[in-house]
Amino acid sequence: MISFSNVYKRYPNGFEALKNIVFTIKQGEMVFITGNSGAGKSTLLKLIGAIERPTTGSIIVNDQNVSKLKNSAIPFLRRNLGMVFQGQKILFDRSVFDNVVLPLQICGFEHQSAAGRVRAALDKVGLLGKEKALPITLSGGEQQRLCIARAVVNRPSILIADEPTTYLDPSYTKDIMNMFKSFHQVGVTVLITTPAAELLESPQYRILSLSHGELVT
Amino acid sequence: MWLSHHWHAFFLALRRLVDSPLASLLNIIVIGVAFSLPTGVYMLLGNVQSFSGQLSGAPQLNVFLKLGTGKDAIEKLKSHLKQHPQIASFRFLSKDKALEQLKQKNGMADAVNSLTRNPLPDAFIIDAKSISPETLKRLRTEMLKWPDSKHVQLDSDWMERLNALLKLGQIALLILTALLSFALIVVTFNTIRLQILTKRNEIEVSKLIGATSNFIRRPFLYFGAIQGVAGGAIAWLIVALVINLINSELTNLVQLYTVDFQLHHISFEDSISLLLFSSWLGWAGSWLSVASHLWQIEP
Q1: What was the pLDDT predicted at A100?
Q2: Are strands A189-194 and A30-34 parallel, antiparallel or unpaired?
């Protein structure tokens, strides 16, 4: 569960990225966040992962008050979140396998069981044959799938993706969206930001619209 | 899980070391060369110390009695020495026996036989319980006051000089060790700083997906420690090499002086201490570097 109440985010230069945000996302829900660039979509996701802290207001993620979390507790919050970042954050100096295994190494998995999970995650995103490939040799769509595999390999209860389809061909976009839907179907809470246009295909999902830092739905 | 974290960090550190072999090798050699200096000095001091001990043993006091000291007086002195709390053992050397011993030395027999009377004094050879220069000196003045003693010889003067020199050497060693330890810390600090800069992406991503600071810090600390151990080992090898070179020359030299002297490497315990110390310094250097640079990288 993710719950925002009266959340404001003001940057030191006075810019108000988010104003009085209130919403609740139930366990197992799939929600889209839309809005023009600069509307505050990314900032909202960053608040969930404690990458940014709110100026005021409280944010509850999995019964933890993220806004009051100590710095030393943040890593353990993030381990329960699967995040697909805008800018991907792939490590290009290591293989696909080594990129995906990183979250498991961080959690202290043994090599054997970690390898099994990595293969399962790569299988789900259709990259099983490319374990040993270097990320630079992958297409844009494949790189995005790699990011998704890394986000889900630790079997998080919440999956967050920041504009996962922005730079992809329409065919890839459908592919990626179907992948998120399949995670939603097995009970994962899914939260995706996206520019408005793509939503027409998914009318059955809840949509939060942001405009100039405010929710407009 | 704890163990798997440490294995992971250890292997990551090893891989980083192997991934840039030339830089790592140069670093290790720099550390090794720097550390070979104090190690070498320590080795030399140890050798000189054991050699001087082998030459003299403990310094002895020789008390020569006045010529014509009577048997009663000698017996009295014997019982006095037996009860003396600071004397471990003593030996009485009568003038006749001393003459006997002199006769047995090569070429002396004729000279001794030509003497009309025995010119040698009776003597006590005394081992004190403590060999500290202060005790020995006190005993010496005490014995000089005996009515029957003529001369007390304490062969510790050169020992004192040697000890003073060794002490000076130890101070030099201490300064050398301190300076070069500092150098080792600086070298490691800088290496780790560069590494943190090049691993910026990795650190950032790791933090984003839930790595604790410890998880990120550990490979760097292992890296510093491994580099330190390797540097210590190089230092040990350099000193071993130098000993080998010197010893082969030394055999020719000492044959001329008919003494048995060979340089020995530092003991097993000292070698282990050297490695532990150098690894600790590497660890400390990287810890400082990590502490001062890692916090700057926040996602």
Answers
A1: 94
A2: parallel
Contacts of B201 in chain A (CB under 8 A): 89, 91
Asked whether residue B166 falls in the same domain as residue B237, the answer is: yes
Residues whose CB falls within 8 Å of the CB of residue A2, separated by 6 or more in sequence, listed in order: A24, A25, A48, A59, A60, A61, A158, A189, A191
Q: What is the mean pLDDT of residues B240-251?
A: 87
Question: Nearest Cβ partner of B212 from A75, A102, A109?
Answer: A75
Which has the closest alpha carbon to A194: A54, A2, A180?
A: A180
* Together in a domain, A1 and A73: yes
Q: How many domains, in total, are found in chain A?
A: 2
Domain assignment of residue A112, given as a range: 91-155
The reply to whether B23 and B49 lie within a common domain is yes
Burial class (CB in 10 A: 0-12, 13-18, 19+), B13: buried
Residue B91 domain boundaries: 61-154
B114 with B244, same domain: the answer is no
Q: Are B144 and B226 members of one domain?
A: no
Question: Please, what is the average pLDDT of chain B?
Answer: 84
Cβ contact B210–A72 (<8 Å): no
Is B202 an interface residue toward A (CB < 8 Å)? yes
Domain tally for chain B? 2
Give CA B1 to chain center in angstroms: 43
- Please report where in the chains the tokens 């998120």 appear, as a residue: A180
ipTM over 0.85: yes
Number of A–B residue contacts, CB under 8 Å: 49
Residues B285 and B207 in one domain: yes
Closest-approach residue (CA) in chain B for A160: B209
C-alpha to C-alpha distance for B264 and A15, rounded to whole angstroms: 73
Residues B128 and B269 in one domain: no
Q: Which of B3, B20, B199, B209 to mutate to test the interface with A (most CBs of A within 10 A)?
A: B209
In tens, the pLDDT along A43-68 reads 999 999 999 899 999 999 988 898 88
